[in-house]
Design goal:
This protein is of the alpha+beta class and 102 residues long. The protein is built from 3 helices and 5 strands. Strand 2 (43-48) and strand 3 form a beta hairpin.
Length: 102
C-alpha cells in the first residue's frame, strides 16, 4: 500500500471544476459521484446547484481525474448527461471527497 501512496504523491496533480448538465438531479448523481471518486482515490466535492446542474471538483493524478470525467459522461442509472463543461483547472482542495449541500 505504501508504494501506491508514494506513486500518487509523485504523479502530477490535476484539479478541475466541472459542470454536469442534463437530467442529473433526483437520480442519485451526487452519491454515485462520491462513490466513483473515492474508488479512483480522488479528492474534491460534488453539489447540486439551484439551476439543476451538478457541480464537482476532482483532484488527484491526471489519469484518475480523466477517468472520472469519462465516468461522469454516463453517470448513474436514470441520469441523462447532455454536457460536461470544465469551468476551471488548477487550485487545491482538502483531502477526501465530500457531498456538499446546495
Amino acid at each position: 500500500m505504501a508504494a501506491k501512496e508514494d506513486k500518487r504523491r509523485s504523479d502530477p496533480v490535476k484539479t478541475v471544476t466541472v459542470r454536469i448538465e442534463g437530467r442529473v438531479q433526483g437520480v442519485f448523481y451526487r452519491a454515485w459521484t462520491e462513490d466513483a471518486a473515492r474508488a479512483l482515490g480522488l479528492d474534491g466535492s460534488v453539489r447540486n446547484r439551484p439551476d439543476g446542474i451538478v457541480e464537482a471538483v476532482f483532484s488527484g493524478p491526471a489519469e484518475s481525474v480523466d477517468a472520472m470525467l469519462e465516468r461522469c459522461r454516463q453517470g448513474p442509472p436514470g441520469a441523462r448527461v447532455t454536457e460536461i463543461v470544465v469551468t476551471q483547472v488548477g487550485g487545491t482542495v482538502a483531502p477526501g471527497f465530500r457531498v456538499l449541500r446546495a
